Amino acid sequence: MTFSSCRRPFRFAHALSLALAATLWTSSPGHSQTASLANITGIVTDESGGVLPGVTVTASSPSLQVKQVSTVTEASGEYRLSGLSLGTYEVVYSLDGFQSVRRQDVRLTAGFTAKLDITLKVGALNETITVSGASPVIDVVSTTPTTALTRETLELIPTSRNGVQALLTQAPGTRTNLDVGGNTAGAIPQFRAFGQSNGSWSVVEGIPVAQPSNSSGSQSGVYLDYSGLEEAQVSSVGNDAETPTRGIQLSMLVKSGGNTYHGGLIGSHTNSSLISNNIDAGLVA
Hints:
Elements: H1 2-35, E1 38-46, E2 56-60, E3 68-72, E4 78-84, E5 87-94, E6 100-108, E7 113-115, E8 118-120, E9 128-131, E10 147-149, H2 151-156, H3 164-169, E11 174-175, E12 192-193, E13 201-204, E14 207-208, E15 229-235, E16 249-254, H4 281-284
Parallel strand pairs: 1-7, 1-8, 6-9, 13-16
Antiparallel strand pairs: 1-4, 2-3, 2-5, 5-6, 10-15, 11-12, 13-14, 15-16
């Protein structure tokens, strides 16, 4: 009797832990997917400022698995394209009796909501106005100051593939290992910002890769194939409630395919001809 009564609390606690684990397991993919997607919103009006319902808004990009995605403006002239993959987009607005407008080079990053308000002019159906070099779109949803390192940035920065330290170096206010020629690529990364050296939080596709209880200011075991990253975001202050710590948040996203065949190649090589020597005979003596 004593043994049976002692087992009941254990069974209840065990069942409760399994239920919590199942809940966390099923909720994690949703958070990961949402954090790695972007949106385009806006209002379409005519030259007098009146809203235009029924405008077809079409977005195309090599990053999409399909050729293009489209929607139609509502009675209020508003539209929304949600769940878009990261990349550069071309957005076309068309309506019978109005000149079509093509907006080029719209760069979307992770969790970014771009607001594009467009004005259509009365004109023939076959006329299209191409808008290029327009003012950059801004995120109208997020208030967190974040440094977004896109694939283009990662491929241009000389030290972009030297590890977590190279990613942190690009964000204002952060301090990490002193890197000389990539000599810290295998070192344990240090996370420091505004005098605080603990509470860092690193995630890949929304999945944590370090424990939140880390208080040493470093994260061991965070080693990734950085040539496979599509984007990295560094936030040193003002993180939302999804971040369980108060320090630097590093969010990394891996590359994904599209509807075109493409690839990349990275190579490195060095030999003695690239090494200089300033030890002359006088110093040797």
